[in-house]
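User: Before I run my own analysis I want an independent prediction to cross-check against. Here's the chain; please return only the C-alpha cells and, at the end, one sentence I can use as a sanity check.
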Amino acid sequence: MGIRYLLIASVLVACANDPEYVKCGATDTMDVCMIDSANATGSGSAASAKGSLHVPVMPPDMDLMKITTDLQATMPADVMVPIYRLDQYDLSVEWTVKNLDDKDGQFKLALNGANEVFAWDPSLIVPADDEAPPTPSLAGDIPTDIPAMGQVDGVFREDQLVEAAIDLDQISRANINPFAATLIINKNDPSFQPLSVQLPPPAGSNMPPMQTPTGSAVPRAAFRQFVRIDLALKTLGPHLTVEYALRVRPHVAKVIHDMGMDAPAAEIHIYDPPTYMPGPAP
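Assistant: C-alpha cells:
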C-alpha cells in the first residue's frame, strides 16, 4: 500500500475491509500528500509546514437532498442539518515522518480540518495574553522523538477523527471553549448543547461571565463531518518530511466519489470554508 494514496472503501462494490486505493489527484492545488519542514512558515515553536487533503464528497443529488430535508423535518427549528454528516462516512489518516538529517530530532504532527461551514486553524488564533497556553489543535500535536536518518509511522484512527469532528462542531456551532472541547472525550456523545457567546471579563475582573445554554440541543444525527483534513508538521530540529494518506470508509452511497481527488471537477465538491474565530478564552 503506497502512503501517497487516498483510500476509498466503496459500499457498492467492496466491503469496509477491502478498500479501493485512489491516487491523490490534482483537482485542487491545495491537496498534497507530502509536507516538507523546509517549507515551514512562522517562527520558533510556532513554525510549521502545512498540507491538506479534501474528502472527495460528491455534490448533493436529489436523493441526498431529500434525505437531508427529511432529517431536517425531525429536528428542532433552530438545529441545521448538514449535508455531510458524521454517520455517512469514517475517516482516518496514515502518516510517515522521515528524518533526512544525520542527527536525532523531535517533531509534532497536528491534525485539524474543516466541515462544510467552518475550518479550524489554531495558528491563526492569538491567545488572550502572554501567559495563556497556545490554542489547541483537534488531534495530535504531541512531541515525538525521531532518530537520525530514521522514520516514525503512525495513524490518526477513525475514532480520533470522530472526536476531532465533534470537537470542531462544538467549538464552532455551540461556542464551547476549545480547551474544554478538546480535553473532554466527546466521541460517543448523543448530543451537545449550544452556549451563549464567551464574553471577555468585565472591567476590574479576571473572570469572564458564565456561558448559559441557548437554543436547542444538537442531536448526533445532525453532527457535521470533516470535508477537509489539514496537517501541520512542527520541528525545531532536523530536516523532516511527512507523507500521509486519507482513508475514507463510506456508510452510504452517492456521498464519496470512488475516484477520489481524480474525479472530474464537476463530480466532487471542494469546500474551503472560513476559519472559525472564537471569542477570548477564560
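Sanity check: The longest strand covers residues 89-99.
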